[in-house]
Amino acid sequence: MKIATLGNASVIHTQRWVAHFRARGHEVRAWSLEPGPPELAAEPLPAAPVPEFARYLAATPALARALNHFAPDVVDAHFVPNYGLMGALAGRHPLSVAAWGSDLLAPEQRVGLRGARARFVLRRADLVIADAENLARAARDLGAPAGRVRCVPWGIRLDRFRAAGERQPQLILSTRMHEAVYDLPTLIAAAALVMRSRPGVELVIAGDGSRREALASLAAARLPAGRFRFTGRLSGDEMAAWLARADLYASTSLSDSTSLSLLEAMASGAAPVVSDIEGNREWVSEGEGARLFAPGDPGALARALEQALADGPWRERARLHNRRVVEERGDWDRNMAGVEKLFLRLAAGESL
Description:
The chain is an alpha/beta fold. It has helices at residues 12-23, 52-70, 79-90, 102-105, 112-124, 133-141, 184-197, 212-222, 236-245, 260-268, 278-281, 298-310, 312-329, 332-347, and strands at residues 2-6, 27-32, 43-44, 74-78, 95-98, 127-130, 149-151, 171-174, 202-206, 228-232, 248-251, 271-275, 285-286, 289-293. The longest helix has 19 residues, at 52-70. The chain starts with a strand and ends in a 5-residue tail after the last helix.
């Protein structure tokens, strides 16, 4: 099968997706405006000197010519507002569009011109892949034909993310990107409250993003010196090692579909303390696998962290429960095999 993948080549999700289908023996070519690692071999699209929102439109004619030359069996576009739009405008079918979460869940993406753009893309896609039920529902609400929407959590590598070795007691780990939607100031404020009563608590914030400098300054002002650390961006193996070491995993996300970071923590045995949002509740519930707190509330998060830290037997039960859940529903190899079957049906001209 010949697959044309359209997506941001600098993002690990795009890289994993392309590598998977190449390893399965398919001919996969990727196109991107953003540069990626050499092994991805993404073919660059022209980046016109125009505002970012217009760059994708300006590059669409070049993409359409490239797709006509490649003649793929399936066009595989990632993220609705940019590469999804390019795939729809290029006019080749069958077209699969993968929604990633904020592209449909963020309120501003559902109204006005942005909402019209999403409806345009979703109505022209032959397949819409959503990684959570709340995201699938958002796609249907925006006009995707129900019969073309499939909920498939991408999943994680269970052989990489697993419990290993001893844990560091009272180590709280965040692995979310340093962007507004992940609300890391709430985590820092809550950690400051918990550290007052628990001298052994440490906070590690992994990842990177546009708010890195501001968050580091906030942490330095609010948290005791020597009890917090910013690691920067980690490799997959480094992330797995930190999750296997952490006592708790904390996520303050304000919006999400299926969080791969949460699945990685669940598989690795870092007990989750996460915001009470729909995407998280598809995988954990209060007391069964996680402690939940009201989004944006540092006091509620501090209480949830205290409750989790004070109850060792609960943490052990949560670790066993969460590993079972991810093995049953979040296995990358099994779930991507389902996506492959959908692509093969599209390539054969079969209805979904």
